[in-house]
Amino acid sequence: MIRHICMFTLKEDNKEKSIAEFFERAEKLKELDIIKKFNIVKNAEKTPASNYDVALIFDFDTVEMLNEYQKSPQHLEFGKFVSSVRVDRACIDYEF
User: Inter-axis angle of helices 73-85 and 63-71, to 10 degrees?
Assistant: First the structure.
């Protein structure tokens, strides 16, 4: 199994609106049956301001399925949105 964790810091302008839209758009990725486990999370209140704002935590059976996800039209569309509202990104993919 491969776990894909991708975290984002969002622009300060309309951050709460961006977070809500992030969740709404990310939910559409559930349509991809290659994602075995699906979590969208928001940083907890009262935690350090230096933390990332939101993250996607997805599990895939194989690296090949992760790569298929990365190239999917749904992911590419979501990526365009995220690029317009983010200032920073960090990602890790690991086997477990």
Answer: 70
DSSP class per residue in 33-84 = TT-SEEEEEEPPTTS-TTS-SEEEEEEESSHHHHHHHHHSHHHHHHHHHHHH
| Cα–Cα nearest to 5, from 48, 51, 49, 55 | 55
The size of the chain, in residues, is: 96
Q: In this predicted model, what pLDDT tens digit does every residue of 1-60 receive, in sequence order?
A: 999 999 999 999 999 999 999 999 999 999 999 999 999 999 999 999 899 999 999 999
Query: What sign does the dihedral 85-81-68-4 (CA atoms) show?
Result: positive
Between the CA of residue 68 and those of 3, 20, 54, 77, 81, what are the distances in Å?
14, 26, 23, 14, 19
Q: Which two tokens stand for residue 19?
A: 């977070």
Give the integer Cα–Cα distance in Å for 73 and 19: 21
